[in-house]
Design goal:
single chain; alpha+beta; Protein Transport Mog1p, Chain A; 8-stranded mixed sheet; two-stranded antiparallel sheet; globular
Length: 192
């Protein structure tokens, strides 16, 4: 009769039956939480407090071809990039690598600003925060990373700043929220 009693009184399977390549499910949950915290650590987004509704007194939707102080730099049938003829490329009181005005179907829709250097980045970030709203940094979030991204979103304008700390290069896209999505209409599958 004793031979009929089970030799194991617990519900866990014997060690030789556990798959060593399959980690416990709680480990995956922990790994996922850590990955989310790291990925989101250098991305901030806030609502814009003062929507500019354009750039440098040029409202969104304006025909850039009629502005005599802008010259076309690159053109395709629907998208034209312009550069100012006389003014140096500057933004936030600092010299930039380039400031391009972009139109889609002859309507002003985007500004692309490129810059270089950590000092310039701090000035640009300070300017954007003072003009369009302070970033909400949560205690414990990473303030620096290889790629930092910031976003301000207004009713008519969206500003996206990306800074690559390794190369010290920054990119700012100031977009019309209604016109900028039309750029996607002219992207071909062959990336021409």
């Amino acid at each position: 009769m004793l031979a009929l009693l089970p030799t194991r009184l617990w519900s866990d399977p014997p060690a030789e039956m556990i798959d060593p390549l399959k980690p416990a499910s709680h480990v995956w949950s922990l790994v996922l939480m850590i990955a989310i915290v790291i990925a989101a650590g250098s991305v901030w987004a806030v609502s814009m407090t003062n929507d500019p509704k354009g750039f440098h007194d040029i409202p969104w939707g304006t025909s850039l071809s009629s502005h005599h102080d802008l010259e076309p730099m690159r053109a395709s049938p629907h998208i034209v990039e312009y550069l100012r003829k006389t003014e140096p490329s500057s933004f936030a009181g600092t010299e930039m690598t380039s400031v391009l005005y972009v139109s889609v179907d002859d309507q002003f829709a985007r500004v692309i600003i490129r810059y270089h250097g950590d000092y310039v980045h701090r000035r640009v970030l300070g300017f954007l925060e003072s003009r369009f709203g302070r970033l909400e940094r949560v205690p414990g979030q990473m303030a620096r990373g290889l790629t930092q991204q910031y976003n301000w979103r207004g009713t008519e304008t969206e500003i996206n700043l990306t800074y690559q700390a390794g190369t010290e290069r920054g990119y700012i896209f100031i977009d019309s929220r209604t016109l900028a999505p039309r750029f996607n209409d002219y992207i071909t599958d062959s990336a021409e």
